[in-house]
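Lecture notes, unit on protein representations.

Consider one protein chain, 135 amino acids long.
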Amino acid sequence: MTHRTASCDCGQLSITVEGEPRGVGVCHCLSCQRRTGSIFATLAGFRGAWSMSGRATEYVRTGDQGAKFRFRFCPVCGSNVFHTEEGFEDRSVSISVGSFADPTFPPPSDSVYDSRRHPWVGLPETVQVWDKDPD
């Protein structure tokens, strides 16, 4: 089985997952823009077990539909590496695609909160676009 490891910029915090991502998407919500310091977040979701190495600082945010998301970032370099949804930590994890530092990583298939996408950002025609979060 394929193992993938993502890490922060300084290498202190890392996460390892097995298998291929269940999905890759971009999120244009204002919270992700602030959280990443970019104009969108690019995330890969994985099912099943994951293991973390190093120390993480955590921040919990409540989403639009009431779910609580626990974001983990490096207390040394500040990189935002991954997050889980409370109640689903053992079944699913979402990892910042940039943390894999792999230009061959699969491209996104979905774009959520597209209503907040900066107008000069283009997406591949194959990406399914959602005005808000479809969940």
